[in-house]
Amino acid sequence: MTRVTLFREGERIYGCRAEGHSGWGEEGEDIVCAAVSVLTTTCVNALESVCGVKPRIAEYSEEKGILAFTLPEITEAEDERAQILMKALKQGLEDVAGEFPKNVKLSINEGRR
């Protein structure tokens, strides 16, 4: 099962950790793992290329299926743009977890970093 945790303070999402393989299909053919990977990787890349915010990668392992990142200290204007992507990530993950509840568990941790 893929476990994804979003880290939030109030309405502000400031980080994400995705870990594990979903078990939906064989490695290389698992559409659920691919969906989570595309969502998280695109969010990280777009934060930098679209918003000009370089997220802090806390942990990454393709072999273990781990990607963990947080937003750095940023201006209010940068955060406003970044939140659009972070909320789009949340929506996409909710959609995947809703379609594949046996393969993806999404949780939200509330609190300060």
Please explain how this structure is put together.
The longest helix has 24 residues, at 76-99. This protein is an alpha+beta fold and 113 residues long. It has a single domain (2-108), classed as Alpha-Beta Plaits. A five-stranded mixed β-sheet has the order 3-4-2-1-5, covered by helices on one side. The two termini are 26 Å apart. α1 (31-49) packs antiparallel against α2. The chain has helices at 31-49, 76-99; strands at 2-9, 12-19, 56-61, 66-70, 104-110. The model has no long low-confidence stretch (mean pLDDT 94). It is built from two helices and five strands. A hairpin with a 2-residue loop joins β1 (2-9) and β2 (12-19).
Anisotropy-based shape:
globular
CATH topology category name:
Alpha-Beta Plaits
Q: Taking strands numbered 1, 2, ... along the chain, how are they ordered across the largest sheet?
A: 3-4-2-1-5
- Overall pLDDT confidence: 94
Write the element-wise H/E pattern from the N-terminal end onward.
EEHEEHE
Largest sheet, strands/sense/barrel: 5 strands, mixed
Output the structural class: alpha+beta
Strand content: 25-35%
Radius of gyration: 14 Å
Give the tally of structural domains.
1
Number of strands: 5
The CATH homologous superfamily name equals Cysteine protease Prp
The residue ranges in which pLDDT falls below 50 over 5 or more consecutive positions are none
What's the CATH C level?
Alpha Beta
Number of helical segments with 4 or more residues: 2
Instruction: Please state the second-level CATH architecture.
Output: 2-Layer Sandwich
**End-to-end gap:** 26 Å
